Recover the amino acids of this structure.
């Protein structure tokens, strides 16, 4: 989400690394900076008497005040800085977790860089066939960090968009496992995925107009493509905020689950993409996107024909055809013919 910032001082991030078997890194964030979702940023330190301002919410959700202490970094990168995402391969699915819960996983330049690198890795790794994106802590993604715009607002906004635009361009099938509020640009990240599964705590909130700012990052286009004109107008113009079940009813999400079942459900669904082989999934996704822009059925027939012929020359198809023939010939009444 794009938000307002109180105070002219830039956000300062310091990383304090503690040696020992439990290496810990803490964020120290300038207290005058206000987060993009209008929660004041939390001031952390590695002292036991660290203090924090309680976050508050403008979208009607109760603020999470139970975890206001410094957060240990779940993963260290080579430079000794805190990684803002975690990645885990589950079978042939890469799970990307936005892991900056103190800032509600807001899209910063650092987080974007790691997100882009993770998508690049997924595409280049032949053992991976799909991607699931989720958030750590109470939020999926609270929006965009506009404190990092720099001297050029135009270039700064483009840099902020880069993370979810890279997800939108991912060749592999992608699923957003929305575990909490997805706000503004954070909603763009969810919309950039091919499919959304909503946990019980999910909230979909465009919120741009509530903050006096025009939608950005192609938000209205994404909304129109997925939720249609009525859904877009209701959410963007009239400020409707949808929960998990409501998002399914509006066509914004494919399914709603409990929070505990969310990630398992998303991974299970994502793992099905490789049932016909990785390249077939990639090509089928590309075809779905290209035919969606076509106005004539005949063009789609021609578009699909060439790729269907390609798929029939692939080893995965030959293997399944052999298995099907073996199954048919093993039956007493094996007069059935091969079918596509």
């Amino acid at each position: 989400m794009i938000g307002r910032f109180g105070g002219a001082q830039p956000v300062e991030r310091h990383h304090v690394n503690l040696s020992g078997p439990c290496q810990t890194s803490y964020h120290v964030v300038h207290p005058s900076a206000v987060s993009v979702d209008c929660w004041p940023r939390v001031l952390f330190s590695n002292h036991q008497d660290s203090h924090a301002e309680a976050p508050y919410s403008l979208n009607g959700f109760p603020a999470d005040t139970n975890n206001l202490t410094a957060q240990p970094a779940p993963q260290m990168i080579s430079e000794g800085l805190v990684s803002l995402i975690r990645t885990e391969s589950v079978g042939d699915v890469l799970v990307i977790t936005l892991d900056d819960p103190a800032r509600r996983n807001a899209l910063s330049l650092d987080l974007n860089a790691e997100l882009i690198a993770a998508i690049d890795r997924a595409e280049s790794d032949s053992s991976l066939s799909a991607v699931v994106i989720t958030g750590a802590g109470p939020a999926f993604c609270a929006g965009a960090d506009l404190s990092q715009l720099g001297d050029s607002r135009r270039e700064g906004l483009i840099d902020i968009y880069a993370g979810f635009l890279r997800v939108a361009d991912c060749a592999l099938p992608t699923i957003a496992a929305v575990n909490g509020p997805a706000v503004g640009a954070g909603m763009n990240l969810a919309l950039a995925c091919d499919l959304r599964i909503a946990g019980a705590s999910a909230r979909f909130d465009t919120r741009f107009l509530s903050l006096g700012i025009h939608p950005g990052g192609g938000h209205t286009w994404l909304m129109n493509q997925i939720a249609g004109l009525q859904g877009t107008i209701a959410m963007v113009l009239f400020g409707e905020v949808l929960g998990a079940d409501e998002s399914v009813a509006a066509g914004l999400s494919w399914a709603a689950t409990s929070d505990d079942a969310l990630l398992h459900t998303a991974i299970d669904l994502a793992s099905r993409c490789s049932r016909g082989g990785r390249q077939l999934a990639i090509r089928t996704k590309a075809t779905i996107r290209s035919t969606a822009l076509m106005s004539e059925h005949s063009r789609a027939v021609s578009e699909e024909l060439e790729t269907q012929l390609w798929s029939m020359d692939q080893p995965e198809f030959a293997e399944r055809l052999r298995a099907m023939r073996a199954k048919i010939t093993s039956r007493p009444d094996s007069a059935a013919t091969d079918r596509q």
Notes: The mean pLDDT is 79.
